[in-house]
């Protein structure tokens, strides 16, 4: 029964939050209302979830489920927090597929593409400014690492973990 309770608690959290930090109060409330954790234990779970790679909500759900009911609890809570995103994504896919030939939808999607590219470009500029400049002074080490990594990406097309590891290694060497 606790597995079903964990699952439904995290489905509710997934549907009523916007992910990330907005989930913390809901997770805390569910854990304490059900008597699964104390507020201190919730803080520990959130701290661990923040330190590990991946989305906070999924990490927190996994760690909370593990704490409450072991591996089955971790699976139950993680599936629960994923259900809202997966169901909305599948509904959107079905909707887009059903209206694929609709001219209005085609025009909307044609307009969304440049907006997405603009958002990606804005993020690149913002992160680039932080990575390659300290105020108005160029950070030559960061620029060199960026150029080397760009060459590696275009020449050999390695996976993301290889790029991250090689950039980290270059950062350690040149720091």
Automatic annotation (TrEMBL):
Keyword Cell membrane applies: yes
Membrane-spanning parts: 6-27, 81-99, 111-127
Coiled-coil residue windows: none
GO cellular component: plasma membrane
Keywords associated with the record: Cell membrane, Membrane, Transmembrane, Transmembrane helix
One GO MF term attached to the UniProt entry: chromate transmembrane transporter activity
Family of this protein: Belongs to the chromate ion transporter (CHR) (TC 2.A.51) family.
Name assigned to this protein: Chromate transporter
Organism, scientific name: Youngiibacter fragilis 232.1
Organismal lineage: Bacteria, Bacillati, Bacillota, Clostridia, Eubacteriales
């Amino acid at each position: 029964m606790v597995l079903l309770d964990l699952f439904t608690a995290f489905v509710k959290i997934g549907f009523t939050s916007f992910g990330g930090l907005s989930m913390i109060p809901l997770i805390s409330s569910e854990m304490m209302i059900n008597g699964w954790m104390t507020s201190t234990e919730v803080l520990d779970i959130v701290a661990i979830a923040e330190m590990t790679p991946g989305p906070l909500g999924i990490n927190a759900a996994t760690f909370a489920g593990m704490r409450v009911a072991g591996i089955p609890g971790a699976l139950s809570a993680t599936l629960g927090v994923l259900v809202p995103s997966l169901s909305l994504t599948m509904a959107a896919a079905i909707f887009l597929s059903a209206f694929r030939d609709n001219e209005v939808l085609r025009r909307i999607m044609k307009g969304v593409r440049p907006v997405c590219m603009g958002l990606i470009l804005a993020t690149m500029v913002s992160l680039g400014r932080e990575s390659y400049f300290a105020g108005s002074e160029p950070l030559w080490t960061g620029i060199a690492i960026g150029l080397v990594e760009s060459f590696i990406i275009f020449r050999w097309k390695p996976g993301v973990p290889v790029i991250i590891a090689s950039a980290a290694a270059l950062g350690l060497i040149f720091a």
